[in-house]
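Colleagues,

For the teaching module next term, I've prepared a clean inverse folding example: a structure given as tokens, and then the sequence designed for it. I'd like students to try predicting residues themselves before seeing the answer, so please don't circulate the second half yet.
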């Protein structure tokens, strides 16, 4: 069995305790209610796995992938009030009851 490593910057929020399958289904429902593409910011699901820990659920409105040996300045990752609202709306739509504070999350996934 081989392991896949990925390093991402995701503009979004972690949903502690969320079931990824429920979140996935509800995000699909949200896309259907928003109508044609371009009406609203698309929010995606990311599951983050580690060596021994259970997977974590993250939703995000933007993502930047990092290839091995790449480098980006932190100044390139600016806040976005529009994306904040999209992530908050999506978190509420999937049934997450705790308030979320969106921002750039640096995610290392091992799956």
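(Answer key — instructors only)
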């Amino acid at each position: 069995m081989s392991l896949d490593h990925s390093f991402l910057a995701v503009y979004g929020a972690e949903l502690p305790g969320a079931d990824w399958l429920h979140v996935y289904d509800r995000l699909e429902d949200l896309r259907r209610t928003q109508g044609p593409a371009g009406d609203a910011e698309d929010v995606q699901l990311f599951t983050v796995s580690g060596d021994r820990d259970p997977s974590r659920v993250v939703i995000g409105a933007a993502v930047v992938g990092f290839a091995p040996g790449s480098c980006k300045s932190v100044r390139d990752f600016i806040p976005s009030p529009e994306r904040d609202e999209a992530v908050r709306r999506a978190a509420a739509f999937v049934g997450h009851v705790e308030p979320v504070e969106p921002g750039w999350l640096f995610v290392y996934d091992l799956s």
